[in-house]
Amino acid sequence: MHHRVPIGADQREFIVGLNIVWSRLEQDRELLRLVRIGMNDWRALKKNEKAAVHALYSQLFGNYSLAVVGKQDIKGIEDFVQSWEDVLLGIPLCPGGKIWWAEAQYLYDPRLVARINARLEASADLPPSWVEGLTFWTTEDADFAKQ
Question: Most distant CA pair in the chain: distance in Å?
């Protein structure tokens, strides 16, 4: 018999934080466009654009770190942790996200950085990058056609 373990308050806050991030992208089409560009080619963004995309990524990584890293109460919710970690890993697996992660990882909890880097270096059982797994993150459509 499988017993479902309830998630803790930190994990609930993480889910709320993720929903806020997704809502921002849904409502702010310019930020969405910049995230799409940044995932594919970080160097194509201007500094203010990079700062906006970085702020969004920081919400994702920061919320995850607060909810999971160093917590003892994640026993029983390993699938939850794994699925959201896979969402985050999709960013540094993108061409532009890889550059962003190399530049920005020093800002995060060292335990989070070690955890993410260990999974990236292991290269086994990695999720697809956001641009590989979800083709709407690519920049090969009319939104990005050269004028």
Answer: 60
Residue 125 dihedral angles phi and psi, to the nearest 5°: 60, 35
Structure confidence by residue, pLDDT tens digits, 119-136: 899 877 888 887 887 777
Q: Which amino acid is at 113?
A: V
Residue 46: half-sphere exposure toward Cβ, Cα within 13 Å: 3
State pLDDT tens for residues 7-46.
Answer: 566 667 767 777 777 788 888 889 989 999 999 999 999 9
Say if residues 69 and 112 touch (Cβ distance below 8 Å).
Answer: yes
Distance CA 31, CA 29 (A): 5
Q: State the angle between helix axes of 47-68 and 9-27 in degrees (0 to 180), rounded to the nearest 10.
A: 160
- φ, ψ for residue 84 (rounded to 5)? -75, -30
Task: Provide CB contacts within 8 A for 73, sequence distance 6+.
Answer: 8, 10
